[in-house]
Amino acid sequence: MAAVLNVASNGLNQIYDLEIDRINKPKRPLPSGRLSIREAWAITMASFALAFILAWFVAPGGRRECFWMVVAAAVITTLYSVPPFRTKRLGIWANVTIAVPRGVLLKVAGWSSVKTAMAWSPGSSGPFSAVLLGATTTKDFADMDGDRRGGCRTLPIQFGSRRRPG
User: Fold this and answer.
1) Is 91 left (phi over 0), alpha (psi -120 to 50) or beta?
2) pLDDT greater than 60 at residue 17
3) In whole angstroms, what is the distance from residue 145 CA to residue 91 CA?
4) How would residue 1 be classed by pLDDT, with cut points 50, 70 and 90?
5) In this predicted structure, what is the pLDDT of residue 34?
6) Which residues lie below 8 Å from residue 112, measured CB to CB, with a gap of 6+?
7) What angle do CA 61, 65, 67 make, to 5 degrees?
8) What is the pLDDT of residues 23-67, one digit of tens each?
């Protein structure tokens, strides 16, 4: 379910990042023309639907904790890519909108497939996955040129290396 949701959120990001990816990742299916926008939308929407369906059936004891965490993760990852929010362009907020769903919500959603997510153990382990706050920055270094042209002020663009005078 988390892997399918990842397909959906990555698909959404690649649709909205098409112009940026033409600079940063021209060999990807969309910028290279191997995949049409219509096909990308179909895969993305089907993946969101499948992730929601799979999460719905994870309901031990009739609890729908997993489903609601997957819905929340989908909403947050949508905020990352889709205007007018597009937190991808907002420095640390880009990192937060990646780290919370992937490092906290989906991890705890997985736990909820066997136990309640309201217990101390799953809830306490999620924040330690906030390492993704930094991990998302490392991938942004390679994308600086396209992100800058696309108006995304990632942390590497805001605080990246500066040339010393002299």
Assistant:
1) left
2) yes
3) 15
4) confident
5) 97
6) 58, 60, 63, 65, 66, 69, 122
7) 110
8) 999 999 999 999 999 999 999 999 999 999 999 998 878 889 889
Distances (CA, A) of 113 to 4, 50, 60, 101, 106: 16, 17, 6, 17, 11
Give tens-digit pLDDT for 88-147: 889 888 888 888 888 788 887 887 777 776 665 655 555 555 555 556 666 677 788 888
The closest of 50, 63, 46 to 111, measured between CA atoms, is 63
Report residue 79 as tokens.
């905020």
Query: In this structure, are residues 15 and 40 in contact, taking their beta carbons and an 8 Å threshold?
Result: yes
The DSSP secondary structure of the chain, one letter per residue, reads -HHHHHHHHHHHHHHHTHHHHHHH-TTSHHHHTSS-HHHHHHHHHHHHHHHHHHHHT--GGG--HHHHHHHHHHHHHHHHHSTTT-GGGBTHHHHHHHHIIIIIIHHHHHHTTTS-TTSHHHHHHGGGGGGHHHHHHHHHHTTHHHHHHTT-B-HHHHHS--PPP-
pTM for this entry? 0.81
